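[Meeting: bench + compute handoff]

Bench side (C.D.) handed over the final construct sequence. Compute side (W.E.) agreed to return the predicted structure before the next meeting so the bench team could plan truncations. Sequence as handed over:
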Amino acid sequence: MFKSFQKEIDLIGDIHGHYDELRRLLEKMCYSFQQNGLNHLENRKIGFLGDFINRGPYSVKVLSLVKSLCESGDAVAVLGNHEFRLIQNSVTGKKIPPELEPFLPWLRTLPLFLDFETLRMVHAAWHFSSIELLLGKSAEEDSFIVETLDKKSPYKQAVSRILSGIKIRIPEELNLIDRFGIRRPKGRLKWWKDLRGKPYNECFISPMTPEICDRGPSDQELSELELYPKTEKPVFIGHYCLPPHISKISGQVICLDGCVTSDKTLWGYHYKGAQKICPSYLIEARATE
């Protein structure tokens, strides 16, 4: 089904319950809300990159819209780490928000990633060996979900890589602080790059202070990384809560998470099937515009 429109798709990053910003972004992308659903004059479709829930005030409204669009064939979506954690909690009998429980059967049908002829979609990282390991695995399988909670299971590590990114420990004495003033014991790596010999300030996706230019991770610490060459098809991700001044595009990797909870801006990309990614196709929207 997706094959017929994957060259005319609008990708949308982490929504986190911010329904008003989502509506505004869809309107800026020329979608109109009508009684029979969402329409576009060019019959374009939508690709959601996960993390629909938590943080914002309208998780249920976001889930209701995304679910209806996926079920009508107007959208596709992949799981984010927040949805996956909800599924894990449900399978293991932990308490989950009652208002989200009705969406669990549908959420469990969503894939961990999508690999199409012209583009890829995954929440945090396209890690080739992890993707290969997870081929055929489904969040509908209780046994698989339980395995992802086992520290010794390769499935736990694979899911963590693609839904939460690849992290390394930061030496305690460096005392690095993120944009929110929180001291971080770990940093998320630019998983698509060769970071050998690079200082810490060039390795982390989101900047931290103070900038460390004279020390960096060891080759051993970077051993999990698998490069994403510029010859590969574009891959769209979310997850990283990028501040406004950080570019959303790096080679063939496009991160559409602009930290909507903090910056009140939701990001999308107007994809037209081209191998080369164009910054002018990035679209941002605030609910108050």
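W.E. noted at the follow-up: The first strand starts at residue 9 and ends at 12. C.D. will use this when planning the next construct.
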